[in-house]
Amino acid sequence: DTGVSQDPRHKITKRGQNVTFRCDPISEHNRLYWYRQTLGQGPEFLTYFQNEAQLEKSRLLSDRFSAERPKGSFSTLEIQRTEQGDSAMYLCASSLGTSGMVTDTQYFGPGTRLTVL
Amino acid sequence: AQSVTQLDSHVSVSEGTPVLLRCNYSSSYSPSLFWYVQHPNKGLQLLLKYTSAATLVKGINGFEAEFKKSETSFHLTKPSAHMSDAAEYFCVVGGFMDTGRRALTFGSGTRLQVQP
Questions:
Q1: Per residue in A43-85, pLDDT tens?
Q2: Which one of A16, A86, A93, B15 is CB 3.0 to 4.6 Å from A108, fit for a cystine?
Q3: In chain A, which residues have their Cβ closer than 8 Å to the Cβ of B106?
């Protein structure tokens, strides 16, 4: 079990630039989640995939955000035209689920810390 | 909409004394409830979860939580704190939002300090 990995661990960018983060889930897990965590707060749910299908999207996921999981394995989260308010830790999690996703045990990666200057 | 409130942002205990981290939730449906722990520079780790089975749930590292529907609470306890328990703890509710969408909602966290 190699765990959930995320790349990069840190990203510093200028306002207006595009950034892309990658998440590699635990290999046999069919579900993958993205969260955003700002300082002093708990993670906020962004989106959820079951295999390659994106099944849930939070209202936090504005048009500038897009997530993909093209082959049901790794996932990417892209932020276009970054804003200073996008500065946060972006967390990825995965789970092996056969029933409702809200009962799954999710395994989290270490996160990607984004700083927008 | 579902929500979760962690009643204390910081809790400080002495090593060897009991730990109580308080959590209240709101949900229109039968929720799933979780406690996760986040150590500095480490990923979130599940401590325990409640999914409509036994109301007293035992987790890892001696932690347990009791689901009390009448009080809409899911407090986390441990009989004796250890220095390694110092971390951020998150209470999480899972269920359906008013929009019909499924989601997990995290509390804002409780930072546990353990004094020697």
A1: 998 998 999 999 888 887 889 999 999 988 999 999 999 999 9
A2: A93
A3: 35, 42-45
